[in-house]
Amino acid sequence: MENKLALNDNLSLSRIIHGYWRLRDWNLSDQELLKLIEQVLELGITSFDHADIYGNYTCEAYFGRALALKPSLRDQMELISKCGIRLNTDANPELDVKIYDYSFNYIVQQAEASLKHLGTDRLDLLLLHRPAPFFNPEEVAKAFDKLKQSGKVLNFGVSNFTPMQFDSLQSHLDMPLATNQVEISVSCLEHFENENMEFLQKHNIKPMAWSPLAGGGLFKPQSDKEHRLHSVLKEIAAALNVESIDQVMYAWLLKHPAGIMPIVGSQHINRIKSAVDALEVEMSLEQWYKIYIASKGDELP
Amino acid sequence: MENKLALNDNLSLSRIIHGYWRLRDWNLSDQELLKLIEQVLELGITSFDHADIYGNYTCEAYFGRALALKPSLRDQMELISKCGIRLNTDANPELDVKIYDYSFNYIVQQAEASLKHLGTDRLDLLLLHRPAPFFNPEEVAKAFDKLKQSGKVLNFGVSNFTPMQFDSLQSHLDMPLATNQVEISVSCLEHFENENMEFLQKHNIKPMAWSPLAGGGLFKPQSDKEHRLHSVLKEIAAALNVESIDQVMYAWLLKHPAGIMPIVGSQHINRIKSAVDALEVEMSLEQWYKIYIASKGDELP
Amino acid sequence: MENKLALNDNLSLSRIIHGYWRLRDWNLSDQELLKLIEQVLELGITSFDHADIYGNYTCEAYFGRALALKPSLRDQMELISKCGIRLNTDANPELDVKIYDYSFNYIVQQAEASLKHLGTDRLDLLLLHRPAPFFNPEEVAKAFDKLKQSGKVLNFGVSNFTPMQFDSLQSHLDMPLATNQVEISVSCLEHFENENMEFLQKHNIKPMAWSPLAGGGLFKPQSDKEHRLHSVLKEIAAALNVESIDQVMYAWLLKHPAGIMPIVGSQHINRIKSAVDALEVEMSLEQWYKIYIASKGDELP
């Protein structure tokens, strides 16, 4: 399977994406992070997923400092970020509660802040982090236009949107939304059940998958569902002759015809390589369904 | 904020609408009702919401008798009515159960009855009162065409419809549906959760909101949810320097970018004025979300 | 009511359809089955519903052997079949679990198997049996194209699909899907509640109804719901002067404006005739709603 996927005429991402929501916790020096980025690029992973709020608004700057040590890497990668959530942390002392802000000014301000923190002149892809009950698609469209025309953001997408939320925003845009980043894993079948997968396939939009390993709980199964999944994942890992169940979980996502792009959130290069190796795993249709059925806990209707 | 909203090229409603579902209970003389109507018009409220069945089929006639005392008022107002529900009351002794009737004949008959009771030659807007499991969009389209071509009804809409119900009917019509009248309030978030708000914003259709004060329960909170809401509404009323929480509830609806038109169902001119005054209240985005979060009982995801 | 319904320019089905999912259990000789088919045709029923998997992959061949006794009947009938489910029975010893297979090869293979078993050179209509979490609409489109261009399948449809599933597949096809075969009965209102009826009416697609008698449970009511329905069906049967409640259940389906086509699964010609006779029953709107309300257990909102 190719480790490159065209989302539209102007944007291709690597099939496996490296995600940085826990970057602050990795406690890497700038040099160590630069080394990790270079190793990741050598694996063929060229797409890097950020958000303004990761690490309480710090992760983008960590990445930017590492990238500044070798700026030539920028042209080998696609940088993705997100905006729209405003945390009620010490970073925003004026806020009593977490809110979503999709005003023109806030979208533009946060995209520009991401550029500054990442140390780049452009984002390849900017996502709206979550759907919001207070949302003005016309205003969002104006913010996207401004960011696009200034060359600061090349492509736009969303995260955690339902079909109607996607459709409503799309109707107000001149450009096609490039992706919807949603939670998909052997343990989280939500988007198989809320019609999102069908919607994405209708429009030939490839989703990014966050938490593709279901948060890690399957490595130490506790609930009935985790035990069912762990057992079938082990069985299939053995049948496929792969070392670990994480590779089976990635292969399960990659086999699906929707073109799912898993976001790998690890700092360990061997764990990241395991995802890339999953591109070569040939899972059978019955194996795919065995995992699906173990997750549901019921045979198919 | 302007107290006039264009629904399409031919129809503008006042942002605040006066509703008459309890008119019978107000026990007003024709003269008293006329006086109320004139006071309401002086506040800039020009749109009046009726339905054939209000007051067991009597409210429209009450209004018509008051209007007959000063017929020149008709051209200063937009008259809205609804049809489709057939009550199993003494008014319909042949019915054992309440049913919905969207046959060609029934729609035309009820629209004509509304004209007669209201004492007018035209409705500015006729709504289908509720979606129905027995519904023939082609037949409804024919009834709308007949009423439109005869000049008896100038615009058409629906009430309590889901996106698919709206879409299905719209597909069979030559004219655009003007609105969807649904229940929205700080306490009823249903249409933020069933994708209706996104659908309406996609098509730039402004909703009318019935029960915008949540039935009044928040003035004497009992449930946990009511206490949470009452507390945050009081806090925000103080911060905004407004006298009563109803004004905060109206301002919360008016701030939303979907263009919500609250239907005020009071006979008391000071209560009605409170809604109009809400047009001038400047609520912050965080205040809007504080109310939303208090209603849900959970912080945002 | 006419016993013929145009689904598109090339396909008309009889309003009542004869279904063969229990054919194996009927234990009919080829001659007896031929006689039944001829009697059914005499009633004006020309459409026959099959699936590859009925009777653990045997029913189509039973039907084919009977038809072979009088091949001239083929041109008087429309043959419908389905594919996509792979049972983990002795017929597929390689499978540990039941799976769905909508690969190009499997669709073509199963359609060709249906032709062979039924002893015909063409299916008038091929349905995808169930929506699947693993589904590639582009691949399905190619299989449909191949089957259509070879003349082996004249029309295509789906079964048990939701609106988005239908829409997603339709978007990848050049030809319109002809129908969606779903469960509808006085006892199963699912498709009145999941927006499928509205979707079908929007696109003027007539549904086929499987299990139109709700599995027969209403003849010997046990649950509260069954007792409510049985009681109102008896009352309406008496009012309409029809002999049995099954005819009321068919009339309830036939009256609906969506153009529902009930699939009758009986081997008894008098039971089948009862469905055809329902075409002449004139149920009132209130009777229709009384049944609906009895099924829901609540009056209308």
Protein architecture, described:
Chains A, B, C: Keywords: NADP, Oxidoreductase. Three copies of one chain form a homotrimer. By secondary structure, chain A is α/β, with parallel strands linked by helices. The first copy, chain A, has helices at residues 23-26, 30-42, 54-57, 59-68, 104-118, 137-149, 163-171, 190-193, 196-202, 224-240, 245-255, 269-277, 285-296, and strands spanning 5-8, 11-13, 17-19, 47-49, 78-83, 85-86, 99-100, 125-128, 156-159, 180-183, 208-210, 261-264. Chain A has a domain at 5-178: NADP-dependent oxidoreductase domain (TIM Barrel). Helices cover 43% and strands 14% of the residues of chain A. Chain A has an eight-stranded parallel barrel with strand order 3-4-5-8-9-10-11-12. A two-stranded antiparallel ribbon of chain A has the order 1-2. In chain A, helix 4 (59-68) runs parallel beside helix 5, helix 10 runs antiparallel to helix 13 and helix 11 packs across helix 12 (269-277). Chain A is globular and about 50 Å long. At the A-B interface, strand 7, helix 6 and helix 7 of A face helix 9 and helix 13 of B.
What composes the largest sheet of chain A? 8 strands, parallel, barrel
Strand content of chain A: 5-15%
Q: Provide the CATH top-level class of the domain at 5-178 in chain A.
A: Alpha Beta
Proportion of helical residues of chain A: 40-55%
Structural class of chain A: alpha/beta
Computed CA radius of gyration of chain A, to the nearest angstrom: 19 Å
**Total DSSP E strands of chain A:** 12
CATH architecture of the domain at 5-178 in chain A: Alpha-Beta Barrel
What is the overall pLDDT average of chain A?
Answer: 97
- CATH superfamily placement of the domain at 5-178 in chain A: NADP-dependent oxidoreductase domain
Largest protein interface, residues of each chain: A-B, 26 and 23 residues
Report strand order across the widest sheet of chain A: 3-4-5-8-9-10-11-12
Assembly form of the protein: homotrimer
